[in-house]
């Protein structure tokens, strides 16, 4: 995949980037907002976690819609944790990036697992959007991460995302591994449920 994206940048190489392949850095979308007191938890002066999830979901949805130029369908949110609280009056920064698409940009990629099958004729794509959040006080001196949220959508188009930098490749690989773990757990659950046996321990 690294060699493929290098070819897309080489003016002397006849290989041209397909129109349905988009570089990861072009999918990025960011917001900054002041945390108002009406969004706080009633027991303290920290912002309610449900409001933070709402903000990350809306940005992830907009990121996927901008990437696909169509309305995405929400599939799932990976398990997430809040690393640091978000106080009232602070500034919340959110950055959403399309980090993985399934089918992948290069068929047959392996990471020690079974190779992924090519699905070039598939016009529906799973889009995974990662939202990174951090909070700063008003004078912008202290910055703390507040969590990472990974949303999966489907779009009725054949689209691919392609990383360019080392950091983007690490984000891509991390997202691909999460997708494979979910798939393995679903397949394992179907296999266990299909035997007719019940675990009583």
TrEMBL record:
Keyword annotations: Hydrolase, Repeat, Transit peptide
GO annotation terms (biological process): acyl-CoA metabolic process
Keyword Transit peptide: yes
One function term, GO molecular function aspect: fatty acyl-CoA hydrolase activity
GO cellular component, one term: mitochondrion
Boundaries of every HotDog ACOT-type domain copy: 25-159
Name of the protein in question: HotDog ACOT-type domain-containing protein
């Amino acid at each position: 995949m690294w060699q493929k994206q290098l070819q897309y940048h080489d003016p002397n190489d006849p290989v041209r980037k397909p129109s349905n392949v988009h570089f990861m850095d072009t999918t990025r979308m960011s917001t900054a907002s002041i945390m108002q007191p009406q969004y706080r938890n009633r027991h303290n002066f920290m912002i309610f976690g449900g409001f933070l999830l709402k903000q990350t979901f809306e940005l992830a949805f907009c990121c996927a819609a901008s990437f696909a130029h169509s309305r995405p369908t929400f599939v799932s949110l990976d398990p997430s944790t809040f690393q640091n609280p978000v106080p009232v009056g602070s500034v919340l920064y959110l950055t959403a990036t399309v980090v993985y698409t399934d089918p992948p940009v290069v068929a047959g990629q392996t990471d020690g697992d079974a190779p992924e099958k090519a699905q070039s004729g598939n016009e529906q794509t799973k889009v995974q959007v990662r939202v990174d959040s951090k909070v700063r006080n008003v004078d912008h001196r202290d910055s703390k991460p507040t969590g990472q949220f990974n949303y999966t959508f489907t779009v009725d188009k054949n689209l691919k995302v392609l990383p360019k930098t080392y950091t983007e490749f690490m984000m891509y690989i991390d997202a691909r591994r999460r997708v494979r773990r979910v798939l393995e757990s679903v397949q394992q659950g179907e296999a266990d449920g299909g035997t007719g046996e019940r675990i009583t321990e």
